[in-house]
Amino acid sequence: MPTIDFHQHFWPEPLIELLARRDQPPRLRGSSLELAGELESEIDLRAHELDVRLALLDRWEIDVAVVSLQPTLGLAALSEDESAEIVAAYERGILELETVAPGRIVPLAAGSDLEGFAGACVGAPELMDLKPLAPKLDELVRRNALLFVHPGPAEAPAGAPAWWAAVVEYTAQMQAAHAVWLAAGAARWPTLKVVFALLAGGAPFQLERLRSRGVSGRDVLHENVFFETSSYGTRALELCLATFGVSQLVFGTDVPVLGPEAGLDAVRGFGDAVADALCKQNPARLLATGI
């Protein structure tokens, strides 16, 4: 059974070329990425070359990368035409790469067309109003595909440190998205497999507080809600394992934003049985494919 990293990002060449041509965020200026509301960041564009990525997977004994276009680019704030152009460049390029490296790259859709994709990636802020998202969720259920919830764009306050968006804004978004799913989404789409990135911003920490407000344990534990582990270590994983059990967690790294070493060390530190569940059995069950 393959080892699967459920949270990676990959920019195919058509997307990089389009971002480099744009005169407004999101755009690339050389290797500098400009996003609305966030500080510029340096991007290692070589990390988005297929041979470089496959070499990284091999080095860390990762067989399969589930890849998505990160909603933090802020496409939801663009005009419909601008957003569609970026999505088309990503999806055209990533589907081509999947054919070049079959079984190594599993792409998630960034737009509404789900053909050829294992599921869809959406920004956490999109879950704040489920009505516009309902057609996509219905189609995911029909296809037995999955939903990957990822942080969306964030705007740091003036003078905030560089880590503010990733540590404060992203986690708050994920907690809110998870809460909306508990309150409304899980009941309407009970069979939809939903994966919340970065442990839903620390969702297990909030469950006791939910119970103090009268929410029962069975209302917050769902067999089709999963939590991806990127950026978290032993302490957070211990809490998640104690809260949700080994069957609801999936391993992810956020490559190339973060390297895989710390996350792999943390997961493998719990022993072979836990590592096999998070890196192999649970993600394979989610993807429900023959990889």
Descriptive report:
There is one protein chain. The chain is an alpha/beta fold. The chain has one domain: TIM Barrel, CATH 3.20.20. Helix content is 43%, strand content 14%. The chain contains nine helices and eleven strands. Strand 8 (146-150), helix 5 and strand 9 form a beta-alpha-beta unit.
Descriptive tags:
five-stranded parallel β-sheet; 9 helices; three-stranded parallel β-sheet; TIM Barrel; 291 residues; alpha/beta
Order of helices and strands: EHEEEHEHEEHEHEHEHEHH
Alpha-beta content class: alpha/beta
CATH superfamily: Metal-dependent hydrolases
H/I helix tally? 9
> How many domain regions?
1
Chain oligomer state: single chain
In spatial order, strands of the major sheet run: 7-8-9-10-11
Question: Could you give a short description of this structure?
Answer:
This protein has helices at residues 13-21, 50-59, 80-100, 130-143, 164-188, 203-212, 234-244, 261-268, 272-287; strands spanning 4-9, 27-29, 32-34, 41-42, 64-68, 105-107, 119-123, 146-150, 193-196, 225-228, 249-250. With 291 residues, the chain is α/β, with parallel strands linked by helices.
Question: What's the helix and strand layout?
Answer:
Blueprint (H helix, E strand, L loop, with lengths): L3 E6 L3 H9 L5 E3 L2 E3 L6 E2 L7 H10 L4 E5 L11 H21 L4 E3 L11 E5 L6 H14 L2 E5 L13 H25 L4 E4 L6 H10 L12 E4 L5 H11 L4 E2 L10 H8 L3 H16 L4
Parallel strand pairs: 1-5, 5-6, 7-8, 8-9, 9-10, 10-11
Antiparallel strand pairs: 2-3, 3-4
Helix pairs in contact: 1-3
